[in-house]
Amino acid sequence: MTRAEEFEDLRGLLFSIAYRILGSVAEAEDAVQEAWLRFEATPTQPTSTKAFLSAIVTRISIDVLRSARVRREQYVGQWLPEPLVEDPYEDPARAAELADSVSMAALLLLERLSPLERAVFVLREVFGFGFPEVAAAVGRSEAACRQLAARARRHMEGGQARFEADRKVRDELAARFFDALMGGDVDALRELLAADVQMVGDGGGKAPAFARIVHGAINVARVLGTNFPLLADIEAKIEPRQLNGAPGAVLRDRDGRVVGTMTLEVLDGRIQTIRSVVNPDKLGHVGPVGDGWALADEIKRARRSGH
Asked: Most buried of 7, 55, 186, 219, CB within 10 angstroms?
């Protein structure tokens, strides 16, 4: 097997490690590409290609995250991870754990950890690497990595959101939600939302988003029910699909360009959190990106015209 073939066999794993550390599709893809360049330039063949490449992509991701954290502190409005359409790493035995670890809620919890804690947690708790491999990847002793893992685990368990485990239940609820959304049925929307539901938008100052978090079933239902039905009038579309392992949707303008995504967190038969990403910088991997401001203006005109 050539080096290129070895690398391609591991590309899905490497991307999945990098994305969970970084919360960014673009940065994860860059980290994987840099890992390939370093692997290609290595004069000797590693004993374990998987361990070698996992260590490289982890170190690159840690360095990128350290600089990214500074940018995120200065971010305009709420910061959310880039939406993930598909996780390329598959492990049927641990499919549920892998899906949970890539949820928006889990990635936001990981943001609270230091870059080292986050990397150790991802390698150990998500992908099941042994402590010798983790230690080699992050350049710390096994004892230090055990402490980092324990600290990270406490943080994650302390704030871990719970999800509806039954995918069929989640998908059926999401289908009802999007039907009510496009129909502008505020009462039906309110019935599907938890009393303390939150709606969070990420525009990064580059697209129209909620200035602050919208709280409560009545407020969220009113905001959704008065705006989204107008999308049909301007020929925009909501395309339901799985995002970050959860039910969600892609919002497209009349030309099919992506102007936003939405993910739903479901528990106990109700939607607990709605997270929308409309920052165009975070949508390029989903498809050709449209103009969110132009779409918002079209919605305003549709509202004024009485539709």
From this structure: 55
